[in-house]
Amino acid sequence: MYFPQQTNQDELLNNSDTDFLRIHSLETFGTHDGPGIRMVVFVQGCQFRCLYCQNPDTLDINGGKLVPVDELIEKALSQKSYFGATGGVTVSGGEPLLQRAKLIPFFDRLHEHGISTCLDSNGRVLDDQTKSLLERTDILLLDVKHINKEWHKKLTGLKNGTTLKIAEYRESTGKPMWLRYVLVPGWTDQEEYLHEWGQHFADYKTIERVEIIPFHQLGKHKWELLELEYAFAEISPPTTEEIDKAAGIFKRYFNTVVVK
Questions:
Q1: Cα–Cα dist 160/151, whole Å
Q2: In the chain, at which end, N or C, are there fewer CB atoms within 10 A of the end residue's CB?
Q3: Closest residue by Cα to residue 86 from 7, 128, 139
Q4: Which residues of 78-88 are buried (b: 16+ CB within 10 A; e: fewer)?
Q5: Each residue of 219-259: pLDDT tens digit?
């Protein structure tokens, strides 16, 4: 089984019925994707082909299931009492921006009910619809997978130009942003690029925190079940020393660095 790079993924997902979201799964009482307790909607479809992807079953735009937005609103309202002052709803992926036209009214309705919104994105698409969605996004969780465009392409299949432009745009709006970075030995732990990553964002005022996510092998079985070749099958998770080194570099540039 193989998931090709599909140039028309955006049009297929974004221009379909806005009353439904194509999702992979739903998590309640999530604590890893934004502040507080959150309902996390994992949408289906992604144009990146990250070699370390922990959820390769979210890549195919024809996978998952169509769920009415009304149903998702009802689920969020049923959990609202648990969200407290800081929790809310996070839309993750897959890549949420491939369904940005649908997420605009979804986020509007969540706000009408006093529920905060987070968007966890790799920054694949920047257009007027993306900007409109970001205006409705209380916190952007932006995955900047590598600062070097060639290494980024080797890692994900695509370069990082649009991701960096979205970070720049978010900064211009003054709205909060968290940056996320997956630490993979031999791929994203090069000292010179960690410094370059930090220097690139060091003067941003909207970055509330940087999250380091150590690579792990918990998703390996999904590649096997899908009969896909897993390029990182033999790569070990970073050691404590490697994690501490990366965190130490980032702490030179950011006030809050968290290892997930």
A1: 9
A2: N
A3: 139
A4: ebbeebeeebb
A5: 888 998 988 899 999 999 999 999 999 999 999 999 999 99
